[in-house]
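Ticket closed. Logging final result for DUF1569 domain-containing protein.
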Amino acid sequence: MKSILKLKTIDDIERELSIIITCEKKQKADISLSQVYDFLAESIELSIQRIGSTNKRNTINKILGKYKFAKLLSKGSYTKANQIPGFPPKDLGDAESALLRLKTSLTAFKLHSGPFAEHSVFGELDKKQWERIHGILAAFLFGYIQLYGDEKLRFAKDREQKKEKAFAEKKHHHHQHPQKKKDDQETKPSGHNSRKWKNKKKPHHKGNKNQGGGPR
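Final structure:
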């Protein structure tokens, strides 16, 4: 399911999850909350627990894996042509347990420093790369959850205000530096120019009584 939601870090996933928990919601299509939570939790768990189980990948597969990974990052989302294998899993029907599992896996990933498992398609990934994968997957899966009501509007408004504030601060910071350079340039000329003028003065040699004026 296509989603305009962009999640790049585990913190982004946790923030979006907190919104989902707080808001009124209903499922889209025939996918339940427990299926969404369980599948995302399993993906995160496998990235830090399935260590040592490497796939035998030849050179062509490695190149293809890197290409597919780069393509997914540039696209930033899963599409119908690139659906996720194995989703949806069996519905266990316990959304609360699935939510607890997801929260636990997110915390475990943040605390895990390595090593990380090899991705079945993309090959070897480091923590930052796995984090991007989980963010794109979470955005895809959360697209199956329909939020509505006043809470959704409030969170959307807060998020927009934070973006505007961050942009304004960045813009303000950018304008400060050119002014600072200008101020620095204005404070330097007097001393700088006086030194240059002194350097231009002709030296007077003690042995030359006429100081370069020639014979009299």
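The chain has a mean pLDDT of 77. No further action required.
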